[in-house]
Amino acid sequence: MKKRVFKIGAVALVSAFALSACGGTTESPSNEGSNGSAPAAVDPANLETEISILAPSYADSSKSDWDAIIAKFNETYPKVKVNLQIEGWDGFAEKISARIQAGDYPDILNDNAFAASADAGLLYPIDEVVSADTIAAIEPSLLANGVGADGTQWAAPDIASARMLIYNTDLFEKAGIAAAPKSWAEMEDAATKLVALGDGTVGYGMPLGSEEAQVESSLWLWGAGGTWVDGENLVADTPEAVEAFTEMKKLHSEGLTQPKLEDNRQDVANLMHAGKLGMIVGHSQIVADAEAQGINVALAPVPDKAGGDGVTTGVTDFIVAFNNEDADRKAATGALLDLMYSDAMYEGWYKGTKLLPVTTSMIEKAKADATTDNEKGFLEALSIVKFLPVGNTQWDALQTSLQGNAYRVGTDDPAALLKEIQAQVDAQS
Amino acid sequence: MLKKARAATTVGRPRAGRGRATLVALPWLLPTLLLIVGVVLYPAGLMVYTSFFKYNKQGIRRSDDPIGLDNYIGPAGALTFPGVPIGRILLNTVVWVVVVVIITVLLSLLIAQFLNKPFRGRKLLRLFIILPWACSVVMTATVFRYGLQENVGLFNRLLVDTGILEVGRAWTKDPTSAFWIAVFVAIYVSLPFTSYTILAGLQAVPTDVLEAAHVDGATATQRYFQIVLPLLRPAIATAALINIINVFNSLPILRILQETPGYHTGHITTTLMYEYQRALGPGVSSALSVLNFLFCLVIIAIYLVVVRPTKEVD
Lengths: 429, 314
Known about the structure:
The complex is a heterodimer.
Chain A: H1 2-20, H2 38-41, E1 49-56, H3 62-76, E2 80-87, H4 92-101, E3 108-111, H5 115-119, E4 123-124, H6 126-129, H7 132-137, H8 140-143, E5 156-168, H9 169-174, H10 184-196, E6 202-205, H11 213-223, E7 229-230, E8 233-234, H12 239-253, H13 265-273, E9 277-282, H14 284-292, E10 297-300, E11 313-322, H15 327-341, H16 343-353, H17 360-369, H18 373-381, E12 386-387, H19 395-405, H20 414-427
Chain B: H1 2-11, H2 14-50, H3 70-73, H4 86-115, H5 122-134, H6 137-147, H7 154-161, H8 175-203, H9 207-215, H10 220-248, H11 252-257, H12 269-279, H13 282-307
Helix pairs in contact in B: 1-2, 4-8, 4-10, 5-8, 8-10, 9-10, 10-13, 12-13
Pfam families (chain B): BPD_transp_1 (PF00528)
Domain ABC transmembrane type-1 (chain B): 90-303
Family (chain B): Belongs to the binding-protein-dependent transport system permease family.
């Protein structure tokens, strides 16, 4: 009986493998391009393979935006079948893990992190896949964000967003605040005046929930003049971090923030859109939504401790290419990405996301097209933004730990809390 | 063949006969066996195996050598990861299972008794009581979560408008209050199944026995505790056991109703497992899963020893 079970099991397994393998077909491997010229080496009309894309849903149009690129791609590469999978951001990491664990690597992945996959040796360096022209088209300050700790360009940014202080100008006027705050002290002062307006008005929205805690706490850390990066390591319990967390705690304990620090960005943005929030650090979508609700808002750099130039943080999402050990798929992947970053295709694609472009030409065009100060503000910030250390392999651990713990600054001692976050990061390295 | 096998048994070679009968039954059993091996034994084995290797968060195995008990008690182990209130979480798990199952069974006894009485509209009422069971647990939990939202939730509005609360509370953003709300929801969704199991048991209680007791002068209380309840024992045993396993492994209710991120004091081991899977990867998560399985076995063993649900049944 046992034998039979094994036999049938074996047959089932083999057929499962056969089924799942039908993507990577038998074409004899063409010449493996050692540099960015791989796509040019194959004849587009005869390249026959199948590649897959896994991308998040930025907006309702995300699927059709990708489909437009794929349709254009298939005009030159008629025999390449492109499978597109679009998933919501919620639980996106789990979807990726599921595919990685099943050994079904997407050829193109659009995500907000790359360090873990790069460290595990699953990726092609992106400059080996796409052409040198495509790399050159991306704004250098943004491109640098896709470099791993080992100095390799593992990922190419595909979309950016800058975070700035967004404030409600009507509430500011009502509370008699003349200008946007530049220092922490001015910020406390402004928030106190805003709260004094009553009617449930909140001074500053501080989302420390699992979605945004890493961005919010980084901003405060940078404002205190600190950084997570210490040589090759990331360190959470620095004196500057304690100072930053102490200031966050102060704002909360004085009743200047929303009552629950574990709120996510959307919870706080809702307050903004209801006209009940004075200040929030956010990106262009929050401004657009607020304006759509008839709330008047303006932008300023995020205040820092001493009232210097302020800090502006940038977030980019990335394109990474998984190594499926198939030269044809690699060639097709490179060709598709080159097409995607071309001005003709990229403009429609990035506009669909309602975020900011990453190619130099499109940033210039968007600046020229921008009609309001708020639109210009975010675009101008793009060249001076600071990034989270996403290329560091420890960032995943630190980010997860911040997402799970940062909100406790409202109740716990900042130094002890940061020690615990550090302990969680240490335990994983 | 079947005839031959039967003949063999009658001739008085029970051992050989039984072996043959098993062989004959095999083709019919095979699909079930395959299913058990495929969906129960293989995954369970894989889980134990996985728990001895190092994985990263994305589920990529980082070394080919087993790492011993590191996923259990290492620096980033399931029981020893810094910042995890593991004692409290184990206690929560016991409280969760015990409270939910006991209250569910007690309430179900009442409901079943009531539904067993003949009255107008009984069918309709029975239908209504089965509704929470017909709804998806995720949906039910989500309704409660939205209803308890601090600013716009309907339950909060009700509490404020009736003057019970001054301002709405963020019920699901406090680990303790969210835990008890989850207990309530878990009872709510477990009631239909339990009630119906017990109702089926009640309908099997022979009326002549009850009538005889009545004639002999037993009071209603005596009749219930000395006749009905003992006869219900198998039904209650089934209901309780299935509930213990169900409730113990219930992820969605707590997962949806707990809005606090991280390793807070409102977890049970099952939700902690999910948290580990996301933050530390499948190695540590599997380790906790193995422990969780043993823990569930212990709870069931205690139940079997203390309550002896099968007594007087055979």
